[in-house]
Amino acid sequence: MTPNDQKPSSIDPLGLYVHIPFCTAKCGYCDFNSYAGQEHAIPNYTKTLLKDAALWREAVGDREIETVFFGGGTPSLAPVHEMAEIVDGLRGIFRIRVDAEVSLEANPGSLTTEYLRGLRGIGFNRLSIGVQSFDDEELVSLDRIHTGSQAKEAYAASREAGFENVNLDLIYGLPEQALSKWRENLEQALALGPEHLSLYALTVEEGTPLARDVARGRTVAPDPDMQADHYEWTQGRMAGAGYAHYEISNWARRGRRCRHNLVYWQHREYLGLGAGAHSYLGGTRFGMVLLPSRYGELVNESAAAADGRMRHIASAESIAPETAMADALILGLRLIDGVDMREFARRYGASPDDVYGRVLQEFEGYGILERTATHLRLTKRGLLLSNELFLRLLPEPVEA
Fold first, then answer.
1. Which candidate, 46, 15, 77, places its Cα nearest to that of 270?
2. 3-state secondary structure of 342
3. Interatomic CA distance for residues 34 and 29, integer angstroms
4. Distance between CA atoms of 102 and 119, rounded to whole angstroms?
5. Which end of the chain has fewer CB atoms < 10 Å from its terminal CB, N or C?
6. For the chain, what percent of residues have pLDDT higher than 90?
7. Angle between helices 148-160 and 113-121 (to 10 degrees)
C-alpha cells in the first residue's frame, strides 16, 4: 500500500489518533498494544511518529483534523518536551483546527500539576484519567499501580493546571464485586464533578493474564447478571446526577461528549499513527506493525524508499459496501440516539430496512430495537443485549 492509494474521496475532516505504547506496568485485563519498562525508547519513538506523519501528508491533503487523541499505553509517561515536539510537528504537517479537541490518556500515579500545566501550554484541552477504581484492594486486583488517593490527587492537579474538560474511566462488575462497592466508587467519582465519565464492565479478553487466570481457576469470571445489575443502577444514578447517557458506556455533561470517539461511532474517517495504530481512510481499514522497534525500522524504510510503499502497514482491508453499511449500523447503534435513517440512506444509497429489514423486525419484536420518527435505536433492554444484534448484522463470511 502507498500513500496515494489513500487519496480521500471527500473533504470531510478527519480524526487523528496517536498511539504511545509504553507503560510502567502491564495490567492483567489489558489487551491493548502496550509494553512495560521501555520508556527509554520514547525519544526515538517521537521522531518515528513524526516521520510516519509526514508520509501521510499527501494522502490527507487539505483535509482538516478536528480531533487529536493520544492513547496507549500510558501517553503521560512522555515528558512535556517530547509531547511538545510531537504536537508542534503534527501541526506543521497537518491542518489541525484551532478549536480541535486534543486529548491525552493518563494514569493517576504519574500526574503532577506542573506536568499538566505543561500539557495545557502546548495545546492539550481534554484529559482522560484511568482511575478504574477508588478502592485500593480493587486496584491491586486490577494490577493498577496507583491508589484511590492518588487518583483524587491527579484529578485535583488537572483542575489546578487549568483543564476544564476531564474524563474519568471506571470499571464495574469485577469478580465478586458487590453492588454497594460499585456504588461507592461511582459516588466518589461524581463527588469530584468531572465533565465526562466512561464506565466499562470488566471483560475477559483473550490472551490476557486475566483470561489465563480464569481458565486455570485462579480467579472467577465476572458475573454477567451482576454486571447487568450494576449497569442498570448506573443508568439511573447518572441521570439523577445530570449526565447525559450518549453511548453505551459513556456519559457527559452538556457539550462535553468526546468528539474524537464520536468520529468512530459515526463511522467517519481517521488516521492512526504509532505501533499497532489502526486507521480508516479512503475506504480502507489498515493497521501498523505492533512492536515499537519494528515499527521504527519499517517507518525508516518507508521514508527512504522511492516507491512510496508503506512498509510499516501490517494489515489492510478494502471495505466492501456491505461491510461499510454493517459497520455504520453497528457503531451507530452504540449511540443512545441511534442511527439517523435518512443520513444512512444518503451515505449508502439504501435504508437500513432495505438491507437488514428482516433482522431489524425480528429484534424489534424482541424489544431490543425501537424507532422514532427519524432514528433507529436500542431500547433500554437492548443496551444490555446489543451484541446479540450486532452479530446478526455482520456480513456473512465469504467461503474460500
1. 15
2. helix
3. 12
4. 10
5. C
6. 80
7. 40
> Is 54 found in the same domain as 154?
yes
The distance from CA 67 to its chain's CA centroid, rounded to whole angstroms, is 12
Beta-carbon contacts of 240 under 8 Å, excluding residues fewer than 6 positions away, are none
Contacts 24+ apart (CB under 8 A), 319-323: 319/280, 319/283, 319/284, 319/285, 320/395, 321/348, 322/355, 322/395, 323/395
Beta bridge partners of 102: 68
For the chain, the average pLDDT equals 92
Give residues with Cβ within 8 angstroms of 276, minimum separation 6: 19, 21, 33, 287, 288, 289, 290, 295
List phi, psi (to 5°) of 263: -60, -45
Residue 312 lies in a domain: no
Are 133 and 221 in the same domain?
yes
Query: Of 205, 238, 265, which residue is a domain's last?
Result: 265
| Interval 70-97: pLDDT, tens | 998 889 999 999 999 999 999 999 999 9
Let me know: does 74 contact 107? Beta carbons within 8 Å.
yes
CATH code at 355?
1.10.10
How far lies 242's CA from each of 44, 64, 67, 156, 169, in Å?
44, 33, 25, 21, 18
Q: What is the pTM of this model?
A: 0.93
Chain segment 201-260, per-residue pLDDT in tens: 998 777 777 778 778 888 888 899 999 999 999 999 999 999 999 999 999 999 999 999
Per residue in 91-121, pLDDT (tens digit) is 999 999 999 999 999 999 879 999 999 999 9
Residue type, 267: H
What integer is the mean pLDDT of 34-59?
Answer: 91
Rounded Cα distance, 24 and 181, in Å: 27
For 278, phi then psi, to 5°, come to -115, 155
Residue 330 CB partners (closer than 8 Å, separation 6+): 390, 393, 394
Same domain flag for 218 and 343: no
For the chain, the residue count is 400
Domain interval for residue 375 = 334-393
Amino acid at 176: E
DSSP code, position 191: H
